[in-house]
Each structure stands twice: as C-alpha cells, then as structure tokens.
Amino acid sequence: GESVGLHLPTLSVQEGDNSIINCAYSNSASDYFIWYKQESGKGPQFIIDIRSNMDKRQGQRVTVLLNKTVKHLSLQIAATQPGDSAVYFCAEERGKLQFGAGTQVVVTP
Amino acid sequence: DAGVTQSPTHLIKTRGQQVTLRCSPKSGHDTVSWYQQALGQGPQFIFQYYEEEERQRGNFPDRFSGHQFPNYSSELNVNALLLGDSALYLCASSRNAGDLIEKLFFGSGTQLSVL
Which residues contact A89 (CB under 8 A, 6 or more apart)? Predict the structure, then answer.
C-alpha cells in the first residue's frame, strides 16, 4: 500500500552543525508535503511545507527539498540548536495527513 | 490568538467504558481533524469534520465517532474502550480552502490511558 516513511529513527547532531532528515514517500500522486516537529508532551508543530510544483523551499534556518523523481523529501536544519531536539515527521497530504514514524533528533553540546 | 485547545489533558479509563474528548479549533478555522498517536509512532488519521459533518474517515472502527458543533468545536467519542485505545489523541484544525490544501495546526493532545 501507499506509505510515508523515514530512513533513520534517530539522528545525533552536534550543536552548531547542520542536520539533514530524510523521508521517502510512495504515493507519486501526492502534491503537498509538510514537515512537523514534535517535542515531548506537545502536539506536532508546523515547520515548513512544499507543494509538488516546487523542488526547494526555504524558511528560517530550515530548507525542504523535494525530489519527485525518486519520491524523496528532506529537511535541512542549519546551525542546529539544543531547542531543535525533538521528533520530526514528514507528512503527505491528500485530503488528510499521512505521517511517517518520525526521526528523533538529539542535539549534543 | 488562541491556538487549538483540547480537554482534558489526561484521562484514565477502564476497559469497556466510554470517553469523550473535546477540541476547540484555532480562531478562523472551520475544519477539525482527529488523530491517534501511539507511543513511538506517528499520528494516525481518525476522521475529519467540516460543516458539522464527517468528511473523511481513516481506518478506525465504528466505536470511534465524532461531532462538530456550529461554533466549529468538536468532540471525539470512543465506546467500549480497549487497552489498545491507550494513546495520545490529537486534534488539528485548518481552514477549508476548497481544493487548495492548507496546513493543519495541532493541539497538545489528550493522553488517554485504558486500564
């Protein structure tokens, strides 16, 4: 069946380095993707989104890249900070959000 | 501007009981979606409400039902609770934009424990 999944369950990053979180999707008809950040005890928080007519979008310290050819999505976080420690989900939306299992990002000093 | 608010924050029930969870959407939003998040997993879509009607439904049994009120707030009801219903229940709101998909804003969730 169709699925949205993440490659790595845990990513350890040193403070100040850049983080890259990857996500694979299998529904080639999907036209909208979102990255969410979820801190412990909180609901998912919107980070950045991208539509299928784009291949790159930048926000504040974050960049999302979309490669439709290989159905791959990535989130890049520049100059990772301790406050970036959280679980990151990519989600595919076709009327409803379909989430992957998430990647735990741990920022070390 | 209040975001999405959910109540209660925590709830403990026993098997076979019924539970009602509540959600108030973000100001200006008219669509409410409910998600179930088991520990260590991503949220799973339960259903979505718009104009007081269920517009879409995920792969959840009929024990899960909902309602949306004229003020756009919503309730999630679960009957005949099972141990496996223990999870974080998330409410998300958005603004209906026709065919244009808009991002969801999530509440902090209700942590339900079934004993």
Answer: A6, A35, A36, A37, A38, A44, A99, A100, A102, A103, B42, B43
Q: Which residues pair with A76 in a beta bridge?
A: A20, A63
In terms of C-beta distances under 8 Å and separation of at least 24 residues, what long-range contacts does A6-12 make, across chains too?
Answer: A6/A89, A6/A90, A6/A100, A6/A101, A6/A102, A6/A103, A7/A103, A8/A103, A9/A101, A9/A102, A9/A103, A9/A104, A10/A103, A10/A104, A10/A105, A10/A106, A11/A103, A11/A104, A11/A105, A11/A106, A12/A106, A12/A108
Please give the Cα distance from B10 to B109 (Å, whole number): 9
**Cβ–Cβ contact A46 with B under 8 A:** yes
Q: What is the dihedral of CA A29, A47, A56, A11, to 10 degrees?
A: -90
Nearest C-alpha neighbor of B76 from the set B84, A76, B88: B88
- What is the predicted pLDDT for the residue at A93? 81
Per-residue pLDDT of B20-71, as tens digits, reads 999 999 999 999 999 999 988 899 999 999 999 999 999 999 999 999 999 9
Closest residue of A to B101, CA-based? A95
pLDDT of residue A30: 86
* A:47-86 residues touching chain B, CB 8 A cutoff: 49
